[in-house]
Design goal:
single chain; DNA polymerase, domain 1; three-stranded antiparallel β-sheet; 12 helices; about 5% strand
């Protein structure tokens, strides 16, 4: 097989990792999509150089994905990966025109994000008993940070002590694409953070002073740890199917919009690059209004 495509994928991956500083999860997603496309070309056409990849060939791959039962959302992601790749290749001068130029993503109905009801969140933090040990302290603070600040999982595990400004009551967060944002922190949460960091220096002989949250062994938290924690405690207060850390971020955004927060403000708090990504939370607000209307209106 001609190595130019493989070389292009390698160069693109290095660009995303070292220049764009994307997360490992994002790098893996791009890598998997591009590797799948490369393997398809190898099987169906015995491989081909970049310059020979045309729109009909890309469409044949997309059609094969649809036949395999992939959802419109998954196919859209793969199209996005290819578009980003070919845009990079064109910028390096290896290609003059992208074969994705006239290929559009399939239309798909956007699924409303799941969220935990406000009464269930209140139950979680006011009435659920977290063990009074390091694991319990860490679990409660992690879930408070996810919900009260609307953090992504990677932002939570990467949260640094030095970025917490107790005087101005805010925290600096490094989000997607290495973008920083400042999030206000309520005094109650700041008090919990301070108690946690003070206790850390008592519990561990050589406490981790860079990252805020640590395991029982004093090491930086990892994603599976947070997944276990959120699943365990959300199961006590809600019956929603998804009980991932991201559900608490969805709940943060939904509760803000339901209570009248301006959409642009929610966008900034979430660290979204465009308002379109934030607008999905207004649908939950509309659904809530529909339910109120249905229950209260005599002809609802």
């Amino acid at each position: 097989m001609d190595q130019s495509l493989s070389n292009g994928i390698t160069a693109f991956s290095n660009y995303l990792q070292f220049e764009k500083r994307y997360s490992q999860h994002t790098l893996r997603s791009y890598g998997d999509d591009l590797a799948q496309f490369r393997d398809y070309l190898q099987v169906q056409f015995s491989g081909m150089p970049l310059a020979d990849i045309s729109a009909p060939i890309v469409r044949s791959w997309l059609a094969s994905l649809k036949e395999e039962g992939l959802t419109s959302r998954s196919i859209t992601r793969k199209i996005s990966s290819l578009k980003s790749f070919f845009k990079f290749v064109m910028r390096t001068g290896s290609l003059k025109k992208s074969p994705l130029a006239n290929i559009s993503s399939p239309k798909s109905s956007r699924k409303l994000p799941s969220f935990v009801e406000e009464k269930d969140i209140d139950m979680l933090f006011r009435h659920v008993e977290f063990p009074d040990d390091w694991a319990g302290n860490t679990a409660k603070l992690a879930m408070q940070l996810l919900y009260q600040l609307g953090l992504r999982l990677s932002e939570l595990t990467g949260c640094r002590e030095a970025e917490i400004d107790f005087s101005n009551r805010n925290i600096k967060v490094l989000g997607k694409g290495n973008k920083e944002r400042i999030i206000p922190v309520q005094q109650e949460l700041l008090t919990a953070i301070k108690a946690y960091t003070d206790k850390k220096r008592v519990v561990f002989e050589q406490p981790e002073k860079v990252y805020l949250l640590v395991t029982e062994k004093g090491k930086k938290l990892y994603p599976k740890y947070i997944y276990r924690v959120t699943t365990k405690y959300l199961r006590l207060v809600t019956t929603i199917e998804q009980k991932s850390p991201h559900i608490l971020r969805h709940s943060f955004a939904t509760h803000l919009t339901n209570n009248g927060a301006e959409l642009n403000a929610v966008k900034e708090l979430l660290g979204h690059s465009s308002l379109a990504a934030t607008q999905v939370y207004t649908h939950n607000t509309i659904e809530k209004l529909k339910n109120v209307h249905k229950k209260a209106h005599p002809r609802g």
